[in-house]
Design brief:
538 residues, 19 strands
C-alpha cells in the first residue's frame, strides 16, 4: 500500500533523514522505533508534507484509494499538488500527533473538533457529526463521552486529550494511520484498551498502522514488523519476534536493555521525626454546571479527590499510580497549595494559605517538575532566566553573578555543562532534546534547595534510554541531598524503580496503599491487580 524509497529530509541544508527505504502492506502494523532525535517523527510527518521549512526528496507512493479525475495508478505523496493532498489527509491517511494539548484547538470543544472532520470528509450534517463524535469518544474509553464532548481541551486530563486525538484520527476510518506516540500519556489499562481498539479497527477495515514510538513493550505487543532508526538511518528491520529475540545491531540491543532499575536508599525508620508532608481527609471539589435551567442559579459538584490520607518522610518517595482522570495530578496540585482543598494538609508542619510570606517559604521547601518540559519552560526565556528565576523570588539578596554561579552549579548537578553546550546560559529550550529539557526543569526546581519535589509524570514523554538516565539522576539526587519525592505516574515500572511506598487511586479515591513491594507483588484490591497485570502483559 505504501512504498517509500530514498526519503531524505533536510533543514537549511543539514540532512536529518538520510535516504531511507521501507514498505507497508495493506492492513500491516509497522513500528518505527528509536531515541528522541532519531528522525522517526520527521519521517512520518514528511509523508503528509507537514514538516515546515523542510527540503524533501525521494518517493513515497500510495497505492489504491480514490484517485479522482479518472486517473489510475499510485500517487507520490511527495509530488502531488497540495489540493489533492488535502483530500488524502484525514480521510485516507490520518495522524495521531504526539502532543494533544498543542495539536487540539484550545478555542473549540473536543466534540466540535471531531465533528469537523466528519462534516468535511464524510458530508454529515452538524447533528449527525456531533452524535458520531460522542460515539467515537465512547469507543476510545472516555467516561461520560457526551459531557466530555462539550469540554475544551484544557478541561480534560492528559490521557483524555490523547484519547480525543485518537477519536479524531479514526473518525473517517482511514486506510493508513500514522500514530506518533499514541499511548504516551495513557496509563497501562487504557493503553491496553487503545491497542485493542486499534487492532480491532485495523482488522475490521483493513487499516494499516505506522506506529512511531519509544515504547518497546508496546511494539512487542502490537506490531508485525519493526524498523529501528538511529540518527536518521535505518539500522535494523524485520519481524518483531526475530528483532527482539536476536537483535543484530548494537543500537537495537541498547534499546532493548534499557529498563528502569531500582537504586534507592531505604528510609530510616523509628526516628520519631515528623513527616515532611502529611494529609488527612484531603478533599478537592470542582464546580460543574447543572443541566437544564437550574444550572443558571446553582452549580453542581465534581469530587476529584475523596478523603485522601498520606504522609511522606524525609528522603522518602511516595508513588501515586492510577488511570488518567483518577485524581493523581489534582492530588499533587492540592499538595502544592495550587488548588483549594478541604481537610488537613501540612508541609514541614505548616499549612497553605496562612499568609503570603508563609506560603512563599513553603514554596521554597516544595518544588515541582511538570509532565511536559516543552510546555512548562517558557520559549522566550533563556536557560539563565529559567533556572535562575527561583532565586530572584526566594533569594532576592543575590546579585547577578551569584545567581549565574548558582545556576551553573544546578545545571552541572543534572548533567548539563558549558563544556557540552557552549554559551549554555544564553540558549533557549527549543535548542535541547526532550531529555535535556527535563533536566533543565529539574535544575530549575533544585536551585532553591527544596526538601521535596513533586514529580508529575517526569519520564512519560521520554524514550527508554533517556528515561533510564533521568530516573538514575533523580535517584542520585535523592541519595546525595536527602530529597523527598511525590511521584505521580501511570507507569508501574517507574513506581517499582523509584518508590518506597505507593498509593493506588481510582475515581478520586485511594483504593490501596503500602510498601511498594507488598502492593505490586501481592496486590489486594481487584483494581490494583488489574493495573499490575496490565503492566506485566506489556
Amino acid at each position: 500500500m505504501l512504498d517509500v524509497k530514498g526519503l531524505r529530509v533536510a533543514f537549511g541544508g543539514k540532512e536529518v533523514v538520510h535516504g531511507i527505504d521501507f514498505q507497508m502492506a495493506a492492513g500491516e502494523k509497522l513500528a518505527l522505533v528509536g531515541e528522541s532525535g532519531s528522525g522517526k517523527t520527521v519521517t512520518a510527518l514528511s509523508l503528509l508534507r507537514l514538516v515546515q521549512n523542510a527540503d524533501l526528496s525521494g518517493v513515497a507512493r500510495l497505492f489504491g484509494g480514490e484517485l479522482g479525475n479518472g486517473r489510475q495508478g499510485p500517487r507520490d505523496l511527495l509530488a502531488i499538488p497540495e489540493r489533492e493532498l488535502r483530500g488524502i489527509r484525514g480521510k485516507e491517511i490520518a495522524m495521531i500527533f504526539q502532543e494533544p494539548m498543542t495539536a487540539l484547538n484550545a478555542l473549540y470543544t473536543v466534540g466540535d473538533q471531531i465533528a469537523e472532520v466528519l462534516e468535511l470528509h464524510e458530508g454529515l450534517s452538524k447533528r449527525e457529526a456531533q452524535a458520531a463524535a460522542v460515539q467515537l469518544l465512547a469507543d476510545t474509553g472516555i467516561p461520560e463521552p457526551a459531557r466530555r464532548a462539550r469540554a475544551f481541551p484544557h478541561q480534560l486530563s492528559g490521557g483524555q486529550r490523547q484519547r480525543a486525538m485518537i477519536a479524531m484520527a479514526l473518525a473517517c476510518k482511514p486506510r493508513l494511520l500514522l500514530a506518533d506516540e499514541p499511548t504516551t500519556a495513557l496509563d497501562v489499562t487504557v493503553r491496553a484498551q487503545i491497542l485493542d481498539l486499534l487492532a480491532d479497527l485495523q482488522r475490521k477495515h483493513g487499516m494499516a498502522v505506522l506506529l512511531i514510538t519509544h515504547d518497546l513493550n508496546l511494539v512487542r505487543r502490537f506490531a508485525d514488523r519493526v524498523v529501528v532508526m538511529e540518527s536518521g538511518h535505518i539500522v535494523e528491520h524485520g519481524a518483531v519476534g526475530s528483532v527482539f529475540d536476536a537483535p543484530q545491531h548494537p543500537y537495537t540491543r541498547k534499546l532493548i536493555d534499557s529498563h528502569p532499575e531500582r537504586n534507592v536508599a531505604p528510609v530510616a525508620s523509628g526516628s520519631g521525626a515528623a513527616p515532611l508532608i502529611e494529609a488527612k481527609a484531603l478533599r478537592v471539589v470542582y464546580p460543574v454546571p447543572k443541566p437544564g435551567i437550574g444550572g443558571w442559579f446553582r452549580k453542581g459538584e465534581f469530587v476529584a479527590v475523596q478523603g485522601a490520607d498520606f504522609r511522606i518522610a524525609s528522603g522518602e518517595t511516595l508513588g501515586v499510580v492510577g488511570e488518567s482522570g483518577s485524581g493523581k495530578s489534582t492530588l499533587a496540585l492540592a499538595a502544592l497549595g495550587l488548588l483549594k482543598y478541604q481537610g488537613a494538609l501540612t508541609v514541614a508542619g505548616k499549612g497553605w494559605a496562612v499568609d503570603r510570606a508563609s506560603d512563599l517559604a513553603l514554596r521554597r521547601t516544595m518544588q515541582v517538575v511538570f509532565q511536559d518540559p516543552f510546555s512548562s519552560l517558557s520559549p522566550r526565556m533563556t536557560v539563565e532566566q529559567i533556572v535562575g528565576e527561583g532565586l530572584r523570588v526566594h533569594a532576592p539578596e543575590l546579585g547577578v553573578e551569584a545567581r549565574r554561579t548558582r545556576a551553573l552549579a544546578a545545571l552541572a548537578d543534572v548533567g548539563l555543562t558549558e563544556a557540552q553546550f557552549p554559551a549554555l546560559l544564553e540558549r533557549y529550550p527549543h535548542e535541547f532534546s526532550g531529555g535535556q529539557r527535563q533536566r533543565l526543569a529539574i535544575a530549575r526546581a533544585l536551585i532553591v534547595d527544596p526538601r521535596l519535589l513533586v514529580l508529575d509524570e517526569p519520564t512519560s514523554a521520554l524514550d527508554v534510554t533517556i528515561q533510564k538516565q533521568v530516573l538514575g539522576l533523580l535517584q542520585r539526587l535523592q541519595r546525595e541531598r536527602g530529597l523527598s519525592y511525590l511521584l505521580i505516574t501511570h507507569d508501574v515500572e517507574v513506581i517499582r524503580a523509584m518508590a518506597h511506598n505507593v498509593i493506588v487511586m481510582k475515581d478520586g479515591a485511594i483504593l490501596e496503599t503500602g510498601q511498594v513491594e507488598r502492593v505490586l507483588d501481592a496486590p489486594e484490591h481487584p483494581y490494583t491487580k488489574k493495573l499490575v497485570a496490565a503492566a506485566l502483559l506489556e
